[in-house]
Amino acid sequence: MRNLELPGRSVARSLNGMAATSHSLATLTAVNVLQDGGNAMDAAVAACAVQGVVEPESTGLGGDCFVLYAPKGSADIVAFNGSGRAPQAATAKWFADQGIAKIERYTPHAVTVPGAVDAWAQLLRDHGTRSLGDMLQPALRFARDGYVVTERVATDWASEVEALSHDPAASSIFLVDGKAPALGSVHRQPALAASLELIAEQGRDAFYKGAIAEDLVAHLKELGGLHSLEDFAAASGEYVDPIKTGYKGYDVYECPPNGQGIIALLLLNILSGYDLPALGAMSAERLHLEIEATRLAYQARNAYVADPAQAEVPVEQLLSEDYAETLRRRIDPSRAGIPSAAAPVAEHADTVYISVVDKDRNAVSFINSTFNGFGSGICGPKSGIILQNRGAAFSVDPEHPNCIAPGKRPMHTIIPGMVAKSGRAIMPFGVMGGQYQACGHARFLTNLFDYGLDVQQSMDLARSFPAPGETAVEAESGIPREVLAKLEEMGHRFCPPDKPIGGSQAIQIDWDQGTLAGGSDPRKDGCALGY
After folding, report:
1. CA 127, CA 144: separation in Å to the nearest integer?
2. 340 pLDDT band (50/70/90 cuts)?
3. Which of 32, 152, 187, 385 is the most exposed place for a label (fewest CB within 10 A)?
4. What are the catalytic residues?
């Protein structure tokens, strides 16, 4: 039971259906779809499309998508990988010949072919009850008629003025006199509205084979990109087999590589060897173990996680108890380790995550992203579509498993999660925040299962994160000063994050009571809402 004397959100509770997103307009859209007879997949796609308009720094048509789906609450989890691929002309030799040692964010080489629209179309075709055209209508209306810029969106938008200043098309749509739109102002995207209308009328091919593809490819080529119309026409996501681990009697599911979900499972495997409840939820000892385990797990991520279609990814080894024990033995319970050099990786990113459960207990864990805020900062001049910068996660070292190659998918940070028990799905969940997500999954679940916090409290609890390649640990202000002081005595160094660490949503299914309980992270502008 929540202590009502302390500030904080209450858990949303309902009988029939529920949605939890990082923007209130997206949550309302999803619930409207459910109340109109649509199912969880319909609602998730509609909500995501809305977020691509009203939360444009985080996601959109030019992003990628991963989904876990539990039909009728079954533990037979369906996984979909909607991540984009590098152009066919993108070879490591080409980058070497050009003297490019790192793929920079604001270049066309950071753009892989966006996978989101194809993912939405396939998922609605196979698991929805409504058409893509119908599910795009709420987003179309917001793009055409306008929406109010909310607090977190305004903050994130203002931090990405530089990203939007590299491309005149992006600047003309997303900046007002060289500045981000003000908090509370009304913003419209008529070019994006026209693109949404075209996709609604003609389907996903309007994006990959029609005028939209022509606009995007022409602009990328103009900037020196290697993309072709054939690359866009060949785009297609795929169903994949989910991976899982056991934790405290629960089965935790993630999408397999090229996503970093395997690292969330590795973290849980490492932490399962400790008696966390005996340490206290906000104790220095618990945070120390989490920081050290995260550093080790992310080193493994940077060394091994890549596109399994074009590289050897040791999935079974990474998920084995022997490997978790090997890493545990490297953790000194009383002293911070010395962070070893990590492979270069992209910085923190923006993402949207959506949980939806309907009256039939179809459960969707849905994540969509342009990676960094406003992605590459490259925008289709006619289509109004911002393109992601997922290619910045590629290496250009031919010996690295995540080296760029024709048609290859980069290591991905966005990861939906699903928890099951006794043959039934009991919680779609996810965490936003780019690199933080794997660490965030483990922290959220240990808050829930080890410390008995409710779904909202598990999100609210202050966070820390040892970003890959950094010696200082990011720490939110909610961590008590005395705890930080003890951790500093153990050898840790701390710095404040540039913005709140991540965000999250989750919906718990109580099969005995027939009820739903949802939470939405206060670090974002969203909410959980049921009916």
Report:
1. 29
2. low
3. 32
4. 351
